[in-house]
Amino acid sequence: MRLQTDLPRRARRLLHDLAARRMGAGEHRSRGVPHHAWPARRREPGGGRGMSAKQKQPARTADAAARARILTDLDVNLLVEAGAGSGKTTSLVGRMIALVERGTPVERIAAVTFTRKAANELRERLQLGLEERVRKGDAGADSTRRCEAALRDLDVGFLGTIHSFCGRLLRERPLEAGLDPSFEEVTDEDWDELRDSYWIRWLERCRREGDAALRDLSATGIDPRSLREGFLKVVTYPDVTFPLAKSPAPAVADCRHELEKLLARAENMLPREEPPDGWDALMKLVRRLTVQRRIHDWSDVAAFCSAVERVKASACAVTQKRWGSDRETKAVAKELAAAFVEFVDGPAAEVLRCWREHRYPTVMRFLQRAASEFEKERREAARLGFNDLLLLAAKLLRENRAAREELGARWAHLLVDEFQDTDPVQAEVCLLLASPPSEGDDWRTVTPRAGAIFVVGDPKQSIYRFRRADIQVYELVKRRFETFGDVLPLTHNFRSTEPIEALVNAHFAAVFPEKGSTAQAPFSAMRTDRPGEKADGVFFYTVCPDGRKKERLFRDDAAMLASWIAARITRGERSAGDFLILTDIRKPIVHYARALSERNIAVSTTGAPLPQERELTELLVVLRAMADPENAVLVAAALEGLFFGLSPADLYDGRKVGLHWAITHRPTESESPCGRALLQLHEWWKVSQRQPADVLLERILDDTGLLFHAASQTLGDARAGALLHLVEALRRVSVTGASGVSDATERLELLLGKEAADAPLRPGRSDAVRVMNLHKAKGLEATVVILAAPQVPGD
Questions:
Q1: 205 contacts: CB under 8 Å, gap ≥ 6
Q2: Which of 637, 622, 522, 588 is nearest to 788 (CA)?
């Protein structure tokens, strides 16, 4: 049997041609659209986004002195506050080149940013800048020779993410950090699987060993399986200390007496039969509590608090006419609802507060022990997640003076971009590395070496608090720079035009405070001197919800926008790559992508959930049948699904000739539709017993043509890319030993619930409409930006 192990590579070539033919004239028109009417801005080498040569060199800006200091004050630690479009990346690259020209070897310079994409851009612009210096400089000059050397040694320096930099530090001093020198850095995707699989194994181990912690949790009414989210948080924030002080159990006698009185009162009022319109919310609550009280002993604190939690989670609302037709009964029902609300806000709230405080230490001890064992397992296996890299690097610099001294000498100049996205651990790594050990080990008080650290940030863009990038960290570091260095503002915007400036300043002056706080940066006016062109500006269109649900509203808006974009492309006014559609949340992205694809417009999505199209869900059905080959229900579901499409009549005919819904043995008859399908499933099952899951998946794709089917559908690039991404994901995990079909099933189920990887069939397309949520658009630009997915105020 020939195994198609090169399928993804072959498929990419074949599907490129297939998709090009499928899209037809609509896409080909978009590729050749002339740009004379509204020329799309492109990035100039060494310059800011969208700046022409003339715009890059303004006659004199108000912040010209600050820009000059960035390039000349190389022995001063500087924090540069620069808004979007102010040329902060250009300034950072310029300072790196100035360091090189002064004689600093590139291998002693580290430039840190917070995404791989930004790091690649930084490297490209540094290389272009050095090449320009070499091309225009005197051949024999020292500065030119130094730039030539820097170009040769560019890979020896560091330009990358903070996590990669911490990994680099640890690889240079692994033994001092207590690590195996061959440690592996776990990717985000693999980290999720590693963590989730450990949690399952941890619970199984505790049950198997009869762990006393499970009895403690049970005594407080907690199912350990419900603590998964808590485990994720403890693992994500290992540097956070959680208090474990004991708290007594609540005294519930008075509260129980009050609830029992309310129940007795409500039971006397309940109709004997269900009202024609059904039980209302309060009726349902009373009926559930009555049954619960009969089953459970409310003298047990855990059982009673569970009942109280049910009351608090209920609406306690009444529909008066369902309690009776006369005015008096309706009034009494309204009073009963008010009494339940008063109970929830009073005695119930206090009991639940005490109960949660009592359970908290029990839960946290269990979760912290699980997180500690998980960390121990990772260290023993030499597999480190991103947080591990940060924490271990910070610990190495904090506790090992010799390593800190040597690493500080090795990386004499540290330049950090997007500093507003820095969390406390990342800030600690940067400041400790830039300061001598004699300054102590508290990053909040150290004084770095002269010129050792240069950071660029914009507090107005501090949007990652949910990732611990708190603006308070930025403000703390800013105050420290005011002490041991200087803070320079870059206020001139080279990217925007005067109409944009007027709109932004008018709007945000009323939104941002005049003075900053611990939670919000102050208002800072945009300043630009570029006049607007004819088509520049901000425009809006009105959307009337008309009571439509969100999904319908998104679909209708997507259809309207896609038709408008298609018309402009057809008329030759724009190309697909000119458009960027932004949504506030991720959920609507698929509606806009689908509407564009249905109109033969190339589309590229970022941040959208993995497209749960039929081929993926049907593939999951087949994999489940492979994992449980004698389960008649799963086998029948596979037979009726997309791959075979058998009808109930086909299944009935198969049963009449003696076929059984199991695939561990060759079917007794293989000429009928049902027999042929069972034979195919049996062949795949045999592959699953001998080969890893990625080989099985490639065989299924090859036998069924599923990849070509996906590519020929709406959103074909994303759908085919999702299949290839799954193959690659299974291949990666199979290396770790998780190569069975059960592992493949779990992997697919996990991927279906996650954000889609940026893995379209044809990545990096510039001729496609980009659709993404607002968080993903940071640092991007487009000729036409559309804020889509309208929502009714208050939603």
A1: 211
A2: 588
DSSP labels, 112-159: EESSHHHHHHHHHHHHHHHHHHHHHS-TT-HHHHHHHHHHHTTTTSEE
Q: Where in the sequence of the chain do the CATH 1.10.486.10 domains occur? A: 614-752
Do the beta carbons of residue 570 and residue 563 sit within 8 Å? no
Which region, left, alpha or beta, applies to residue 374 given φ > 0 means left and ψ of -120 to 50 means alpha? alpha
Query: What does the pLDDT look like over 646-662, one tens digit per residue?
Result: 999 999 999 888 898 89
- Cβ(722)–Cβ(760) below 8 Å: no
The one-letter code for the residue type at 341 is: V
Query: 117-141: per-residue pLDDT in tens?
Result: 788 888 999 999 999 999 988 877 8
pLDDT category at 762 given cuts 50, 70, 90 is: low
Tell me which residue has tokens 């017993």. Answer: 689
Consecutive H or E run containing 449: none
pTM for the model stands at 0.69
- In this structure, of 160-174, 417-431, 699-713, 754-768, the range with the lowest mean pLDDT score is 754-768
pLDDT on residue 412: 95
The token duo for 512 is: 């941002």
3-state secondary structure at position 179: coil
Tell me the fold of 64-180+387-493.
Answer: Rossmann fold (3.40.50)
> How many CA atoms lie within 13 Å of 169's alpha carbon, on the beta-carbon side?
34
The rounded distance, in Å, linking the Cα atoms of 536 and 649 is 63
User: Are residues 785 and 582 in contact, defined by beta-carbon separation less than 8 angstroms?
Assistant: yes
Q: What confidence tier does 239 reach under pLDDT thresholds 50, 70, 90?
A: confident
Which residue would you say has higher pLDDT here, 380 or 586?
380
Q: Domain 614-752: what homologous superfamily?
A: PCRA; domain 4 (1.10.486.10)
List the one residue out of 350, 363, 360 whose CA is nearest residue 224.
363
Mean pLDDT of 384-400: 94
Q: How far apart are CA 96 and CA 133, in angstroms?
A: 12
Average pLDDT over residues 465-484: 80
Q: Is 719 in a helix, a strand, or coil?
A: helix
According to DSSP, the residues that pair with 787 across neighbouring strands are: 582
The pLDDT tens digits for 630-640 are 999 999 999 99
Q: 286 with 267: CB under 8 angstroms? A: yes
Cα separations in angstroms, 360 against 220, 244, 351: 10, 8, 14
Only one residue has tokens 């979007």, namely 84
- Indicate where the chain has its CATH 3.40.50.300 domain(s): 64-180+387-493
The dihedral formed by the CA atoms of 596, 601, 606 and 610, expressed in degrees to the nearest 10: 60
Task: Say if residue 25 is exposed, middle or buried (CB neighbours under 10 Å; 0-12, 13-18, 19+).
Answer: exposed
Q: Which region among 142-146, 175-179, 545-549 has the lowest average model confidence (pLDDT)?
A: 545-549
CA dist 238 and 392 (Å) reads 11
Q: Measure the CA dihedral 231/191/732/174, to 10°.
A: -130
Average the pLDDT over each of 360-369, 672-681, 696-705, 743-752 and give the range with the smallest value: 743-752
Pick the closest to residue 86 from 462, 514, 524, 474 (CA basis). Answer: 524
Q: What is the DSSP letter of 70?
A: H
Tokens of 417: 């971009």
Q: What's the rounded Cα separation, in Å, for the pair 458 and 82?
A: 5
- Closest-CA residue to 620 (of 733, 461, 726, 765): 726
Q: What are phi and psi of 427, to 5 degrees?
A: -65, -40
Q: Tell me if 603 sits within 8 A of 569, measured CB to CB.
A: no
pLDDT of residue 360: 94
Three-state SS at 376: helix
Shortest CA distance to 713 belongs to which of 621, 639, 618?
618
